[in-house]
Amino acid sequence: MAIETIKEKRTPRAFPRGGEKSTQARSLISPIELRNNPVVRVGYSIALVICILLALVVLFPLYWLFSGGFKSLLELLQSPPTFWPVHPQWTNYVIAWLSVDWVGAFRNTLILALGSWLLSTFVSATAAYAFSLLRPKFGNVILFLFMCTLMIPGVVLVIPQYANILDVPLVHWNLIGTPFAIWFPGAFSAWSIFIYKLFFDGVPRDLVDAARLDGAGHWTIFRRICLPLIRPAIVVGLIFSFISDWSSFFWPMLTLTNSNWEPVGLVLYTTVRLEPRPIQIASSAIVTIVPFILVAIFQNQIIKSNAAFAGIKG
Measuring CA to CA, which residue among 255, 234, 295, 288 is closest to residue 106? Predict the structure, then answer.
């Protein structure tokens, strides 16, 4: 049937035809041209040097942050500053880790980010599916009005959102101090709806029509055909949701202070600010390193999902 055919088409080919693994390296510049053309070789060397310099510029603040966590208070305040800690204080990171329940803060942040992503994905994906495949009357006008909300400054929405969280209309629930105070305001995102709609527009209509001929309803088409094909957009949404909840401070400070759901950004402000300056820097370094570790762990899945989607569209 149509759905089984889609699954077969989505299965990536691990090896080229013939069963032999390809050993040829793919790049923008062929090895022969790079070896025989001096102009290409010089240009490639210049581009490589520029990339290395840009990488050093990006990585230097991270190095300065982590090295500052090893310095004493006097060494931090001296002028000119030292490039490398003269007398490394290895206990700064131990004290920073033991002074705060980082495991609980990381767990809270992951739960908040996962809940925001699930709710936002459901709302945005269903809305985008309606705009792209159902094509309701005045759909383009409604989408345009959604996009106009992006021009409203976020600070203007703080008071109305806080009033809604403090007393949810119709049900009159107080969500202050609960994870729903983070999940509900982020459920609607005009930008996410627009991104998902672009991906839904790229779904082959032949697959959708074949599923309809097999008797599949809109929910089946959305869940078993469209969602697997827009996996790169879902992964991107997960990354953006995690980064947003990881670095958020103002809204959690208003809604989650003195609760059991404080994320790392709020914990860093409410607890670590009372510690000495070297401990504060070490704690900031601990908070900073986690997103890089997660990206390093899941980068293969991100690349594979994008490659699979590119193969389907072709």
Answer: 288
